[in-house]
């Protein structure tokens, strides 16, 4: 046994014996995150406590602190888990079969449906509520969520520009334009409670369809544009 992890009682040995090192059990971790999700959704961030989450997740207070140092870390981890699901689905929408317009339609429909869902709208409201007190947390939420999502869209656009299928000088700016167009008349009314229910399929398709049409009208190559 040359490797220290092979010594009795060390992490590698414990895992091989089927026992999880403290804080490394993915099932227990998800159990805590699921409980936290329900508590944050019901009470909001500020009104929630670690005690509320331990009761909801059916774990001890000692257990929850093995996995998460505080409520802020728990919330950010929960948001990261939800983001990874969104990023995975949105990447598939952009890289699948179809024309540029068809792929943008799939992407936009998916993003609007997710971002304007009850769960994500509540998360945005939580961040807005704590933004003044915890600006770093709000900045991380934007950087790791909306900003990262737009970077993936910008990479898709860059590849299509290089293939000669789009004419865009600033793909990052174009990605912001397209995302905002997709959610026109939906996201802000949802965020501020003016639109109480999640948007219907018809409402989403109308908004995203208009965004795709405007985007392609502006950024699609024009016949003869490259001629001398």
From TrEMBL:
InterPro entries: DNA-bd_HTH_TetR-type_CS, Homeodomain-like_sf, HTH-type_TetR-like_transc_reg, HTH_TetR, TetR_C_Proteobacteria. The keyword DNA-binding applies. One of its GO terms (molecular function) is DNA-binding transcription factor activity. It comes from the Bacteria. Gene3D superfamilies: Homeodomain-like, Tetracycline Repressor, domain 2. It holds the Pfam family TetR_C_7. Residues 49-68 bind DNA. This is TetR family transcriptional regulator.
């Amino acid at each position: 046994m040359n490797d220290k992890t092979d010594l009795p009682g060390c992490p590698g040995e414990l895992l091989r014996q089927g026992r999880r090192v403290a804080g490394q059990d993915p099932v227990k971790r998800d159990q805590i995150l699921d409980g936290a999700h329900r508590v944050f959704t019901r009470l909001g961030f500020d009104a929630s406590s670690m005690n509320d989450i331990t009761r909801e997740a059916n774990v001890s207070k000692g257990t929850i602190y093995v996995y998460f140092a505080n409520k802020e870390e728990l919330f950010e981890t929960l948001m990261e888990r939800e983001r990874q699901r969104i990023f995975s689905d949105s990447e598939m929408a952009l890289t699948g079969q179809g024309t540029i317009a068809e792929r943008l339609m799939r992407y936009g429909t998916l993003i609007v449906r997710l971002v304007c869902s009850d769960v994500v709208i509540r998360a945005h409201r939580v961040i807005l509520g704590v933004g003044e007190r915890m600006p770093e947390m709000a900045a991380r939420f934007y950087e790791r969520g909306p900003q990262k999502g737009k970077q993936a869209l910008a990479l898709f656009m860059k590849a299509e520009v290089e293939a000669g299928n789009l004419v865009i000088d600033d793909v990052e700016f174009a990605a912001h334009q397209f995302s905002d167009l997709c959610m026109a008349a939906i996201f802000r009314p949802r965020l501020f409670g003016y639109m109480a229910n999640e948007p219907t399929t018809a409402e989403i398709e109308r908004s995203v369809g208009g965004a795709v049409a405007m985007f392609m009208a502006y950024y699609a190559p024009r016949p003869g544009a490259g001629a001398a």
